[in-house]
Structures are given as structure tokens and as C-alpha cells.
Amino acid sequence: MAYVVMYIIGLIVLYFVIEHAVVNGINKSKLGEYIDSKIDSPKDPINSNKKKSFLENDLDN
Fold it and tell me: How far apart are CA 14 and CA 29, in angstroms?
């Protein structure tokens, strides 16, 4: 039983380590900033107000 608990705790710690590495490593790199700037600023202002997800797809427009 103790091995299962230690395994779960290890997975949780590993999750936080990987999440921290992604947030600080990839998102703050030059490539991450470049991709983020391209995603946040659409080139086509006409289509920028398109619905973002299928949950917003209803009959009310």
C-alpha cells in the first residue's frame, strides 16, 4: 500500500516539474514568444471575431 502512495506522490511531483519546465523553458524562449505573438494578434481583423470553440456554436449566432 505504501508503494502505491509513493508512486502517486512521485507522479504528482513529476507533473509539477514538467509543468514548470514548460512554462519557464518553452513559453519564455524566443521561439515561444514569437509563436505567442503570432497567435494573439490575428492578421485578418474580419475573421478575428469568429467563434473560438464548438461550445459557442448555437442557433443565436
Answer: 22
